Every structure is written in C-alpha cells, then in structure tokens.
Amino acid sequence: MYEAHATVIGTVITHPVRRDLSNGEQMLSFRMASNARRFDARSGEWTDNGTLYLSVTCWRRLVEGVDQSLHWGDPVIAYGQLRSNEYRGKDGALRRDLEMRAIAVGPDLARCSATVVRRSDGMRASPDAVASITAADSGPARSPDAEPIIGVPEQVDA
C-alpha cells in the first residue's frame, strides 16, 4: 500500500478520462500541474519556481463526482496517496511519473466559486436536477463550450 499522503493544489491540464474496467469497476484519470511561486523581495514580483506534474486516478464514488464537476483548465485541490512509476520510453530512456491515487478532489475555491449539489449515497445526480453554475468561475483557461464545474438546481420549491 502507498504510505505517502499529500495535498496538491494546481490546475487540471488534460480532459479527465473515465474508463470501464474488465472487472466492472470504473476509474477516472487526469493530469494536473502545480506551479511553485515565490515572492522575490528584491524585485517586488512573484516568480515561477518550477512546475510539478502528476497523474491523478480516481476510483469508486469519487469517479462520478469528478466526472461531473472538473474539466480541463479548472483550478483543483487533490489529496491522496503518492507513488512513483518507472518505465522505459520509446527512446529507451528510463523515465519516472508521479501518480496520485486520489482520496478527495475538489475545486480550489481560492481561484473559483462553486455551488455544491449533494448526491444521495451511490446515486448519480439526475441531469434534470442539474443546471448551470453562474459565470463567476469561468476563467480564460476554460473553453467557451465547456460544461459547468458543478451544477446547481435552477429553482427549488419550498
């Protein structure tokens, strides 16, 4: 079992891909990037200090929520178990990839806003109950025809 747990704050840099496995389970994966920035007191400006790239895999109940909520370009916070995979590239060079088996994933509310739509245990939110979110979280990185980050009911009758 993986022992190193970490929280990574970054941006989704690929479209999340959902897969049905032969054993009946589903998984979803995407790549994210986390930019390290620091304040340079001499220049008075923020400077980039490298980028961490990692693959995130989601399993079980997390698949549905991430699939409905996050898309390419969205600000994200991911928490999970880290591991490093070694493999040989097509050129024969030894490469390493950092992977996170996610326990929790969500939007970074410091960089966007979201409305929570709760699902009943194990149930997918019905498309009729999910509408669009306000444009407050739409940023320049999102494509104009992208789906909302998280849907909200249009009207709730009391």
Number of helices: 1
Distance between the termini: 47 Å
Q: Tell me which CATH architecture of the domain at 5-111 applies here.
A: Beta Barrel
The structural class is mainly beta
* Main sheet summary: 5 strands, mixed, barrel
Structure in words:
InterPro entries: NA-bd_OB-fold (IPR012340), Primosome_PriB/ssb (IPR000424). Keywords: DNA-binding. GO terms for molecular function: DNA binding. This is Single-stranded DNA-binding protein. With 158 residues, this protein is mostly beta strands. It has a domain of 107 residues: OB fold (Dihydrolipoamide Acetyltransferase, E2P). Helix content is 6%, strand content 44%. The protein is built from one helix and six strands. A five-stranded mixed β-barrel has the order 1-3-4-6-5. The longest helix is centred in the middle third of the chain and has 9 residues. It is flat. The C terminus is likely disordered.
